[in-house]
Amino acid sequence: MAAIPKKVSERIAKSLGSFQKVLANARDRDVNEADTVSIVSDIIASVFGFDKYTEITSEFCIRGTYCDLAVKVDNKPQYLIEVKAIGLNLKDNHLRQAVNYGANQGLQWVVLTNGIMWEIYRIKFEKPVDHEHVCTIDLLSLNPRKADDQEKLWVLCREGLSKAAMDEFAQRAQSVNRFVVGALLTGDEVASAVKRELRKIVPGLKIENSEIQEIIKNEVLKREVIEGEPAAKAAAIIKKAARAQKKAKSVVTQEMVG
What we know:
Layout: H1 6-29, H2 33-46, E1 56-57, E2 61-62, E3 65-66, E4 69-73, E5 76-83, H3 92-105, E6 109-113, E7 117-124, E8 130-138, H4 147-154, H5 158-161, H6 165-175, H7 178-185, H8 188-201, H9 209-220, H10 223-226, H11 229-257
Parallel strand pairs: 5-6
Antiparallel strand pairs: 1-4, 2-3, 4-5, 6-7, 7-8
Helix pairs in contact: 1-2, 1-4, 7-11, 8-9
């Protein structure tokens, strides 16, 4: 990910700590949704760098209903924010509402938040329309001055929009996660590497890759990492990358032969 500009880093470091105190206090008082929206709007302005009066709006109408907040640059909506009261856990029905708002407007990005937890989703304009979870950010757990934590907020900053930070972050999140790592660990290349190491311990050991893969799947990894839809998607990503690499090598070989 590209380095965060110094002025953005300084803004996050200066303002996030204050809002962490505001959020903790609001949580303790269990403030309502309207008050949470007010806090979220201030965070978008002070931490993420949008102009509070021209780039943040609560009057964004989509098919006769209003989303809680939208951020705009040059009067073009960039992403929508659906806000729930700070004491509520974010749920699937809240997400469906946010995704419907974004899909109806043709926006790729929506954010669901209760002020503390910020869930970022990318809408996939397929038939039917789908969505994928990109990341969840807990504002109270972040260190305002830590570079890695600032990077998590960079994707929502005004300056990040011009650098396609969301696309870059989504691509990284899709590729670097426990499901992809789990799929790699159960592949042939890792099994072959483990077999070589085992033979250093027991010279002449007779063992197949499939045996090692079964041990990794059943005794090393958690079942949730290698089963289900996320795991299937991770396996598909790896296969696609392997095919692309194989194709690239084939082209190079043909060029060398030619």
